[in-house]
Write a structure and sequence with these properties.
Layout: H1 2-17, E1 23-30, E2 34-41, E3 46-53, E4 59-68, E5 74-82, E6 85-91
Antiparallel strand pairs: 1-2, 2-3, 3-4, 4-5, 5-6
Keywords: Cuticle, Signal
Signal peptide: 1-17
Protein name: Larval cuticle protein 9
Length: 92
Amino acid sequence: MKFAIVLVACLLAFTYANEDAEIVKSESEVNVEDFKYALELTNHIKAFQEGHLQDKDNWVVKGEYEFDTKDGKHVKVTYTADDHGYHPTVEQ
């Protein structure tokens, strides 16, 4: 769960760094053994994450986020995170 909190905090910091963006979509659901959220902004930033408690101490988290760079390139990162680490795939 610590990973999920850190990732959400990073994404929110990234979002707030883009002050001109407005929220188009914001959904979240947090339960004891699972969670999911989605965020979409007017500046083409999108994020989705979901996770569930695999056993007493381990979370499995899957998600993706995408954005446009300042030079106009579109970047999409899809990832999983579990007790074996963070596993991203980057598309440009």
